[in-house]
Structures are given as structure tokens and as C-alpha cells.
Amino acid sequence: MNRRTLIYAGIPVLVIAGAASWHRIGRNRELDRQAAVKQEGAIAVTTVPVEERSFRASLPFTGTLVAVNRAELKAEVAGRVTRVGVLEGDRIAKGTVLSAQDEEDLQLAVQAAEAQLVQAQALAQQARRDNDRAQMLLEKRSITKQAAQQAETYFNGSAAAVRAAESNLGLANSRLHKSRITAPFDGEVASRTIQPGEMLSPGQPAFVVVDNRRLEILADLPTEALPLVKVGLKASFRVAGFDKPFQATLTQVSPLVLAEGRTLRVRLEIPNPDGRLKGGLFAEGELQADGEIRRTALPSSAVTAVGRDAEVFVAEAGVAKRRRISVGPEQDGWRAVDGLPKGTEVVTQGRDQLSDGTRVLTPKGK
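The structure corresponding to this sequence follows.
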């Protein structure tokens, strides 16, 4: 075997030996690192810093769906319930009688007031004729001026008696009307809390009526969103149990910033002609504004969120500390965060092994 052959044959051996040595050196370094970590009682982790990034002006919000038309109906007069004509869930039209109280005494009062009005009107008609005759005789000087004045006074009194009788009849009818609870608008019976035979007191709740064809959400936005918010903006939101998002329109912006929390309250209206959505459902969505906003942010992979809430571990002086934060919707692999200043080191790999106060070791010794 010549010298060239020996050289060619030895090259693979040298490569293999070199690779084995490099692997051994790397393995020894890793073992030394792990030993050092174990000796220090720290857990090796990796971190990412909180950055400031531009986001499309998409403002996250949460809220509860509420019917625009919603009324709690209460008894206006005292009395025993004689009938209840609806059940919870029934659809009703405006003016539908939902319940009635004992009406016998009230109907008698209406009849008595009607009779008094008829009597007063008859007396007033006679007084008008007498007054007209007295004024004609006075012109002919067939009666004294005093007699004519008496006829006029009686006529004015009888006219006042008619007005009083009309007022009494109106009051009697009003009491009779108030003994019946009626629907103020088309909708559904959401709640019924009375039964036939029950005695009601004025102000006692009886029904809740809602019209779910128009719903709204009252949402609180951060004050930083004030320059971006205006009536007419569109929003998209999701409700648990539905695969597709729903649309809403911003219809009102509060003229004041709420002192508690320094937030801006807005009203979003949702058309719901088919009644699929119901009042009381929780909604989570985004308000689409123009332009961009700068927000502190983390990569989406660094955050595990439930809704808008999340917990992360930050590395401070070699110690893991738990922090609760709020996060926005994902945009291009990033999520805006509230509660962490720019530059904060947030643990990504190794966070499952941490608890508050655990010592950590980062690749850069952060």
C-alpha cells in the first residue's frame, strides 16, 4: 500500500475522531453547565424581552349583551292578582295584558264616576239654558241684574262640576287601568314573579320584558384609545357556542372618562332580527379603528391567555416572579400586553417548572 493510499484511508478516520472529540467536548460542557445549575439550585430557562411595537388600531373589548328595550314591570296599585296571562318565554305584543288584579271595586268606582258625570252634564245643560234666558231678559230689563248674575254664577258652577266629574272619572279609569300590567313594547317575557291569588303591593316586581331584536354592549376602553374612537366604527365579537363572529356598530361615546379605572365607556349596538343572540351572553371582540397604535408587546408563543387575562414569569435578578397581565388579540404573531414595562424579561422555555420565587439561570445571566 503506497503512501497516497494510506493518506486517503486515514482521512475518514481523522474526521470521525474529530467529530467524536467535538461531541465529547460539547457534552462535557453541557454536563458542567447542568452540574453548575444543580449546584446553584436554579432552573435553566430562556427569556424574551417586552418590546414596543405598532399594532393596527384594533381595540379589544369585553362586555355583556343587553337588550336595548328592557323593562321591569311592577304593580302600581295594591290588590289581589286574579289572573296571569303569560309564562316565561312567551312572545307578546305591545299592549298585551300580562296580569290583572281584583277589578270589581275599581269597576264599580268607574260606573259611579260615569253616573256623576252624566248628572253633572245634565245640570250644566239646564244651567246654560237658564243663563241664556236670564241674559236675554236682562237686555229687555224684564229681570234685575242681580238675578242675571245669579244665573251666570250657577252656570259657571255647574260647568266646574262637570270638569270635576270628568277628572273623577279619569282617576277611576286610571286606577282600573293600573290594576292591569300590560306590555310596553313587542318582545318576550324574560321573568315572571307573581301567581294568581297573590296580594300585590305598589312597587312590587311582577315581570321583566325584553326585546332581543336589538342588543347592545357597554364596553370600557383604555383612555389611550380616545383619539381613535368615533361613532360609526365597526366591531367584530364572538360569543361562546357560536362558530362565526357577529358584527356591531359603535353608536355612543361617553362624554366623560370614568374616574374608577380611568376608562372610556362606549355603547355598541347589534342588530339581532332573528333573535339568535340573547341578553346576558358574554362577548369578547375588537373595535376596528383607523391608523396604528404603539403598545408594549410579547410574541404570542410567550403568552398563554384565557380571554384577555394571562400569567407570566419574569426574570428579575436571577429570580422568577409571577405577574398577572392583560393581553390584546394576536396580530402578526404578537400580542399587546398591559402590566409589564418595556424591557422586562419574560420566561418562555422552562416556565412550566417555575413557581413564584424560583431561582432561574438564563443563557445571558439575566
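The chain is about 30% helix and 40% strand.
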